[in-house]
């Protein structure tokens, strides 16, 4: 404890309590630890010490303390000034408050008086207006002896006055005003009579289709502000009656009784021991469609009744704005929604109750759709022209949804009807026979019939068109599986007649082409679906090509094999032993391989190519074969080495014979040599090329029609044997292998092959001067540079 007494912090702490400290010191003295006199001495010493320290601090900071005292005196003066200002401000505020409060209170009281006065005036004005309108009503009623004998115009005037009173009573509170309350019972009585008369006029006008009366009744109800509720109630009554009529019209029991009565009334229609149901399918269908026509007429009458509420026929003012305040959608949309739900429900229940109803509605869906279209055509005559699109997009689609299930069933049966003749025509069984024209005509006839039945509705016809796509795709699959693909189907060697497989494929492809032509002719009557079906029809061409392409390739290979025999000919001997040219008017002679080629071409034309009855497609195949023959012959002829003048004449004779043979082939198919295009131009240019000088070979005037590869081959042939070599000789290939390599590679690749031929060292190994370039090599480089843009 004594140690802590020396700590100044003990006395200056916030928690220091003198009483607690004194008690603590006394308690320590009583315990014998310290004498109280000692504690008092220490405390006195500390006080003296502190006093001395304070005196020293005052002496040290004497001038600073004097300055602070002076500042405090100045601050005291300033505070006195501020205090005086605040007092003055308070006095001013009190004075201002005294000046404002009285006028404010007075103005407030006047304002309250004014508001109450205005309220009273407004109420009096409304009472006056009420009395004035009541007086008008009394005057109007005084003009007629009895309200029940009033005219339509008078009813409209009375309703207009009652409407004004209705608005006034809603806008103001007349409770407690006796002059108003006394007249309310009489006004309500008149209003009830006018309302009843308007409702009677509405029903009578709709029943008799009296549009002026309907418009008058609606105007009366509109003036009474009861139009929306009354029209909705009226529409609901029509819907209820229509639902009952639809239910009765599609009642299976009633239909069955009607069919039974009709069948017993016809002689010979029923016999003992014969099933009644199986013999009355036609009567069922007739009864169903008769009832459907009645139902659609009743729905039409109901719709016209509803739409008669839509606007004033005299001034075209819409009455449905009030209806929209009650219904989420318009009145007509509300009507269609409920009607379609009820109609769909009754149709489904009737279909489930009788297979005959199901069969009639599904099988005769186009007729059902036609009834709907006639119905909507009738309704549209009552619509404003500007609303026809809205009507179609909402009401028509809503009602069509109610028969969507029958559309699905009809489309399923439709595609089945088209599949059946396709399966029988393109049969893949053991006893299968080639499709005949009658079979193909039957397929087209059924497809045309399906489109014709659906022609009345664009959407249905497009759906049927999609079914035709499925049927044609199925026909393509069946036709491909029906085609023969055994080795005998592609056998073209020898001189025998066409095999059974080949004849089968010819008949199949001719049938497919007849189907292709017939379908395009059919689509001339249905231009709306051409874009939809055209792709599937064109797929038939691909099927024809897939079936015939292998045979065409074998024919080409057979003719190429014959042309390859040109390699065995000698075009350098002076004594040629060629056979006479087959063209009777020619004086030259052709090579034996060309004679064989002519015979093979005639054989293929007789046994195979003449069987094509594919129109333009067949012509394209013949042109393709002819172009391949010209290209392949030019390729082989350009590599004939050595070649002297007699050999050139021999090649010229071969060209003449080749032209004659191809011309005969093309003429039998209605074609000419000029239609072969670039290949025939190349053949004619090659004939002249044989007799040109080397300097003329690079002239585009003489050789522009000759392919660069053919021209380069011929230039190499003209070079000495110990200089440039033909590309296939460098690699040890045969002419057939080289031809196949060219077919499988691009122009860039054969250019690289030619360049490799130019850089071989074979000619240098024979003692040729390394520094000299052969003239033919320079010509080849020039051709590659000009024709193929190759830089060296």
What does this protein structure show overall?
- The chain is an all-alpha fold.
- The protein folds into four domains: 2-60; 228-267 and 276-402, no CATH class; 411-552, Glutathione S-transferase Yfyf (Class Pi), Chain A, domain 2 (Up-down Bundle), CATH 1.20.1050; 563-787.
- It is 72% helix and 1% strand.
- It has 33 helices and two strands.
- A two-stranded antiparallel sheet has the order 1-2.
- The radius of gyration is 57 Å and the shape is flat.
In short:
By secondary structure, the protein is an all-alpha fold. It has helices at residues 2-5, 9-12, 18-30, 36-60, 62-142, 152-171, 178-181, 184-208, 211-223, 227-249, 252-264, 281-307, 321-324, 331-353, 355-363, 365-380, 388-401, 404-425, 437-453, 458-482, 500-523, 530-563, 592-607, 616-637, 645-667, 678-689, 700-703, 708-718, 727-731, 735-744, 747-758, 762-765, 775-787; strands at residues 579-580, 589-590. The protein has four domains: 2-60; 228-267 and 276-402, no CATH class; 411-552, Glutathione S-transferase Yfyf (Class Pi), Chain A, domain 2; 563-787.
Strand order of the largest sheet: 1-2
- The N- to C-terminal Cα distance equals 116 Å
Helix content: over 70%
Shape descriptor: flat
The domain count comes to 4
Strand-residue proportion: under 5%
The number of helical segments is 33
Q: Can you summarize the main beta sheet?
A: 2 strands, antiparallel
- Global structural class: mainly alpha
Q: Average pLDDT value?
A: 79
Low-confidence stretches: 1-6, 267-279, 322-328, 382-392, 577-588, 761-771
> What is the radius of gyration computed over CA atoms, rounded to a whole number of angstroms?
57 Å
Total beta strand runs: 2
